[in-house]
Amino acid sequence: MNQQQQQIERFCRRLGYQFLDPQLITKALTHRSASNHHNERLEFLGDAVLGMVIARALFTQFPKVDEGQLSRMRSSLVKGKTLAVIAKEIDLGDYINLGEGELKSGGFRRASILADAFEAVIGAVYLDAGFEKTNTLILELYGQRLTEINPADTQKDAKTRLQELLQSRRLSLPEYELLDVSGEPHDQTFEVACCITEKAIQTKGSGSSRRNAEQLAAEKALTELQQLLAS
Amino acid sequence: MNQQQQQIERFCRRLGYQFLDPQLITKALTHRSASNHHNERLEFLGDAVLGMVIARALFTQFPKVDEGQLSRMRSSLVKGKTLAVIAKEIDLGDYINLGEGELKSGGFRRASILADAFEAVIGAVYLDAGFEKTNTLILELYGQRLTEINPADTQKDAKTRLQELLQSRRLSLPEYELLDVSGEPHDQTFEVACCITEKAIQTKGSGSSRRNAEQLAAEKALTELQQLLAS
Hints:
endonuclease (chains A, B); RNA-binding (chains A, B); nuclease (chains A, B)
């Protein structure tokens, strides 16, 4: 057994799954910087499998929770940041095959590379073992993250919450206005105002996109409105 | 058998699947305007199942196509417009249970209601029959749309194509600049310029979002650049 095979053996023990076809896991661990036989197609497949496994688990676990809440919980469980954390738990970064450049710049620690490789590993397990075994493995890897997730932790975004609060009090919807765009074309800053005329609330937010600026302005307006309504 | 049961019988024949648990299909066909026992949770589940079935089918059917292209093909196959077309082919609109208001305003013809109900039906079949049978049914319903899809038909967006063409000719990347934002806060128009300095190309685009405006400007710049390079 050569060194690469030994490495892969070790990773499979760490992952908790032995491949019938070792070429699949070799490919899943190969970043595009290292070879043309890289993991991106497996990542595409793994992303879809993961999305379905998490959707089914949440659907079963929360029989009373509505679709919007389920969607938000799913997003928080399959986003890159979460996948990178799980990837680190199984030391995935130690086993990714990277090109010279990525190695030198510490690519094995980059969240996006870890998350993508994790999805590719899921895709490889799925091709090797089918849906049910992949499902079991994913649930094991997620562990408490899935069993202890709380619907209330995944909030709607600030603009939505502000709109809902206003509607529940029969107040008019807020108006967002773009006040200013500054900076170089590739690095602009947007400044936005959020106005709730009936309550004389006007807040401002700025960010690298109009959307981010609006969310910040909405967050501040929501705080002011809640204080006003509570007083 | 009452009238509603007869209706559902008819729809199941049209769909090509007989439910073991008829309550599932009843729920899948119930819009939130008609009852609290509506189809939105099933829609959440069906969306994930559909996404995975189409991802797996494309992955197998196109062994040489890269991840980006697979993603774009999948998007075009699972977008609301496509789902609404398939829903119409099985006359889904005739069987959706809508509230008074939606009925009067012709909700059974609305693409979003049809697409959502179609996903809910997929979710119901999945709960009733499991993955493999749902997979078979989805592939039947998609038919030629899936077997005859051409990777070249789903193009990358204009900004990406422009960037790739410039890179392949070792030219600098374009600069996008926001020229103007006009209109009321809820109905703004963005005007954007796209500049390729080395080739003295400058085009403009306008749209309801900055992104749309940039895509239009990029599309025009791409046309000018192609003409210039071909001449």
